[in-house]
Specification:
single chain; mainly beta; 5-stranded antiparallel sheet; 3-stranded antiparallel sheet; about 140 residues; Jelly Rolls; about 10% helix; 11 strands
Length: about 140
């Protein structure tokens, strides 16, 4: 379904499908130089009020949940989006306060966020239960 997005997406999904993600070490994993790479993280989710939206300009984010459950907030840039940290080209992100929606991401589910999207990962489950997650974020250069 996502192959029409281009070869880079085929490479990213092939990495996710053909790698034992449970055994993948934390940190950065090169897939295709700086064009496609994976960041593996483990962390405790947080309550929604303690996180803000982020956005990138150079990379698309493909979030794949290995274990645990989190909610991810998503929104689009709008006149109601308030930048709270200016864009850093070196780190490729800016932070925002915005109105949006939440989607629950469970193991073997993924979400894709393009540079036109604001996203807020790491939110605890609907009932407020904080939990540990392991997630792979594949960064795909625009």
């Amino acid at each position: 379904m996502y192959l029409p997005l281009g070869k880079k997406y085929d490479v990213a999904f092939s990495f996710l499908l053909n790698t034992d993600l449970n055994k993948l070490a934390l940190g950065k994993h090169t897939i295709d130089g700086e064009s496609i790479f994976a960041l593996v993280n483990e962390y405790e989710t947080k309550i929604e009020d303690s996180v803000v939206y982020e956005a990138h300009k150079k990379y698309v984010d493909l979030h794949y949940m290995v274990s645990g459950t989190e909610q991810i907030g998503f929104s689009s840039y709008s006149s109601n989006s308030k930048e709270v940290r200016s864009y850093s080209a070196d780190e490729d992100y800016a932070l925002y306060e915005a109105e949006g929606s939440l989607v629950q991401v469970k193991p073997e589910m993924f979400a894709i966020f393009f540079p036109t999207d604001l996203h807020m990962p790491g939110i605890s489950e609907e009932n407020g239960a904080v939990g540990k997650v392991k997630k792979v974020v594949v960064k795909i250069r625009v």
